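WARN retry 2 of 3 for item q-0093 after timeout on previous attempt; input resubmitted unchanged.
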Amino acid sequence: MSLQTSRPFMPLDKGLEQKIKNEALTYLKKGKPIWDVFHALKSVEYMKELLKNEGGNARILITATYLLNIGYGLTKIDKEKEMGFVTVLRFKQRHALLGSKEADKILRQINEFTEEEINEIVRLVFVHDEWWNHSTKNIEDSFNDFMIVEADTLGMIDPEVPQNFSPEERARFINEELIPFRIPLFRTVYGKVKLKELIGKAMEQVEGKI
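OK item q-0093 returned
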């Protein structure tokens, strides 16, 4: 069963995507060492797969996925001596606020998005990490939110993404955020199947190193 009845697919122009990617990378490279760039690019890969299966507005969803974590590059989190689960939690709200404001600036400078698209992308950047706490929308109206949660989460749990957490801290993320908050939000067939595959590999990887 799909997330909802299939949505019309609206593509993102390759040239425009490259502009967004280039802008995002300037911030991501200043964020969490090792992690932010690889995580963002992997999440975009998963978003493209979700769009193939579910439809949706790639102009909004791919763009938002590139920009989700640009706020970390504005928080100076890269100066932290230790990069653990609690460290990231301390910066989450600030990165969402700073990232959403910066996303608004970037999109207006590029000047190829409608006001409606900008507002939705900025909203997704702001709520993406704790949507389950922010959202007042009905489940039926939350297509974009679920798509973002799935792509972002798959990009987090994929064992091919280089880790800046220790195995112990990665296990803590899985047990304290992934399982209780993120997994219950998965709606698509593709997302659920891929999540099962990836979480199995991730747990094997973690348990083999602890």
